[in-house]
Amino acid sequence: MDKVSGSRSESRGSIVAGMAICWLLNLAQIGISWLLLVLDDRTLPFVFVLAGMVGLVQVGYVAPIWRLLQRKGKQRTATGLLIAAAVTLLLNAGVWVFGARLRHMIS
């Protein structure tokens, strides 16, 4: 309890902040893939992996940040980070499934 206001101060972070962290990092990842595409045609495989598989590649930066937030006691922020990562992964998988079905329908 806080002596001044008489209420318990919440320092566990914010779910919205965790979601914002994840999605801003995803935007940075897409920006890096765009820069690689503009740089040279030989970087096309890297662009495909970075942009096309953002849901899987994000595990490389979401897991360490999640562990860091957990250690610092920011459980809500860590939860928001995982929620955003799961949403990104599901949307990315949905796009791949839709693309595969559309390609099958066209063939």
Question: Could you describe the 3D structure shown?
Answer:
The chain is mainly alpha-helical and 107 residues long. It has one domain. It is 78% helix and 0% strand. It contains five helices and no strands. The chain has helices spanning 15-39, 44-52, 54-57, 59-71, 75-106. Helix 1 (15-39) packs antiparallel against helix 2 and helix 4 (59-71) packs antiparallel against helix 5 (75-106). The protein is flat. The N and C termini lie far apart (66 Å).
**Alpha-carbon distance between the termini?**
66 Å
Please give the share of residues in helix: over 70%
What is the overall shape?
flat
Overall pLDDT metric: 89
Instruction: Count the E strands.
Output: 0
Overall tally of domains: 1
SSE ordering: HHHHH
